[in-house]
Design brief:
heterodimer, A: 85 residues, alpha+beta, Alpha-Beta Plaits, two-stranded antiparallel ribbon, 2 helices, B: 388 residues, alpha/beta, Rossmann fold, 2 domains, seven-stranded mixed β-sheet, six-stranded mixed β-sheet, 15 strands
């Protein structure tokens, strides 16, 4: 792998290859029946860990979810809870 | 060219160089003895003589931050500071070199506080010498001007991509008016050429992230790349000196020697003292003493091999530092001693600390550096011109 001077990241989206899921000590659990697909969690997630397909919230990308809990805090319907790994 | 000569102080000479370069951005905060540089340059901006975006910041820390961001965006960027202003930038100095932003900065060398002192020594530059910046020193106003122009070419070179400090002695060069031969503006523009930044942030067709987390994965490798770039800067600087010499007739070397061919005893110094030392050598040569003086024009990277050659087979080498490192030997002395390790026989070397806080060092005091060595009176560490 070529090391780019100055630590510049010259390839867009390369964070996909940098898996941060093993940083996690809490994991998000979705109660699907309470979810209204408002996408608030998708907006707030600081990574790219909310899986959305055809406007439906379909769970979490656990390879990258750091377990920060922001989605649970932001969810207006309290449909996400954090549990210890 | 003589009819083009002007009488100018070092600060105005640098402002003139910048005017001719017409950089994209200048972000600065005033501090004595640098103030005239940015003051005069802000006149040029206000009068529409340059297209530069001039950013007045609230501190030197902010000035350097703006400069780094601007250079990272791809803009040709200049600034200037001195003394505690440079110290206040210190955190960001390492960011500038670490991100490989090739901005240039004039440093009007001034003592660090405390006790407070606005006069010249090299405390500011020496305290910044390990931050990954290229550093070049000037003997006179002409060189301060020339360095400000050449620095861009060295810093921006694709194999270097490092920020560069052009040091000029506070007051001695910044405020004293000297005769100087400026270049025609179109020649300056042609010499510095168009800036071709590597991976600039504003190249939206090739998106780039700068300042990302590095951690233990690549930090070491990135630091080593800075060391490699420093090594490359030796040849790049030589080439830039050569091209500049062809253009102006002013031929510079990484390590300057004066009357050294047959010299038994040599002194090594930086900055304006090189000029005073030449006069000292002339005087002593008149008395039949075989002495010479050496100045590493480029201080970072240190032209170690050239220094070793210059001091080889001397009976004595005195290293003059306009700075002291309490608790250890001063930096130029340490650098010269380290450089000598490649020699078969290491010459006797003496450290002379002088000129702190603007203490005058004239021909009479500087003569004792040589006569002390010749008479066997020189100690390992000497303090020149201290009141008894």
């Amino acid at each position: 792998m070529a090391v780019v001077p100055g630590g510049r990241v010259i390839e867009p989206g390369s964070a996909l290859r940098f898996e941060t899921g093993d940083w996690r000590s809490f994991r998000p659990i979705l109660e699907r029946s309470m979810c209204i697909d408002c996408m608030t969690c998708w907006i707030y997630c600081p990574d790219d860990s909310i899986i959305v397909k055809e406007n439906k919230m379909e769970g979490f990308r656990m390879t990258h979810c750091k377990g920060c809990g922001i989605c649970a805090k932001a969810c207006p319907k309290h449909a996400i809870t954090m549990v210890q790994e | 060219m003589l009819h083009n000569d002007i009488a100018v102080n070092g600060d105005n000479a640098i402002a003139l160089a910048w005017k001719q370069i017409d950089p994209d951005v200048c972000a600065a905060y005033p501090i004595t003895p640098q103030t005239i540089i940015v003051e005069r340059f802000s006149d040029y901006v206000a009068d529409g003589e340059v297209n530069t975006e001039f950013v007045c910041t609230e501190s030197e820390h902010s000035a350097m931050t703006v400069c780094i961001a601007s250079a990272a965006a791809g803009a040709r960027t200049v600034t200037a500071t001195a003394s505690v202003g440079l110290a206040y930038m210190w955190e960001m100095l390492g960011v500038a070199s670490g991100l490989r932003t090739p901005l240039t900065m004039a440093v009007a060398n001034r003592a660090l506080s405390a006790p407070i002192n606005i006069h010249c020594d090299h405390g500011d530059a020496m305290a910044s010498r390990d931050t990954g910046w290229l550093m070049i020193f000037a003997e006179n106003v002409q060189e301060a001007y020339d360095n400000a122009i050449m620095a861009l070419r060295i810093a921006e070179h694709k194999d270097v991509q490092l920020p560069m400090m052009t040091c000029l002695d506070g007051f001695i060069l910044t405020h004293a008016i000297e005769r100087m031969t400026p270049l025609d503006t179109n020649k300056v523009k042609k010499f510095v050429g168009e800036h071709r930044p590597v991976h600039p942030l504003l190249d939206h067709k090739n998106p780039v992230t700068q300042g990302a987390m590095d951690g233990h994965d690549f930090y070491f490798e990135h630091r080593l790349q800075i060391a490699d770039a420093m090594e490359a800067a030796l040849d790049v600087t030589k080439d830039v000196f050569k091209e500049f010499g062809k253009l102006t007739g002013r031929r510079y070397n990484l390590v300057e020697r004066y009357m050294c061919d047959d010299a038994d005893y040599v002194a090594i110094c930086l900055g304006s003292t090189f000029g005073t030392m030449k006069a000292t050598v002339d005087k002593l040569r008149g008395e039949g003493k075989k002495v010479g003086v050496i100045m590493p024009r480029l201080f970072r990277p240190l032209p170690s091999a050239e220094i070793a050659k210059a001091i080889d087979k001397r009976k004595g080498v005195a290293v003059l530092d306009k700075f002291m490192s309490p608790g250890t030997y001063p930096p130029l002395f340490e650098d010269i001693v380290s450089s000598s390790l490649s020699l078969k026989e290491i010459p006797k070397m003496y450290s002379y600390v002088y000129g702190l806080g603007g203490r005058d060092a004239k021909v009479d005091e500087l003569s004792t550096v040589f006569t002390d060595m010749i008479d066997g009176k020189a100690k390992k560490v000497n303090y020149l011109g201290v009141k008894k």
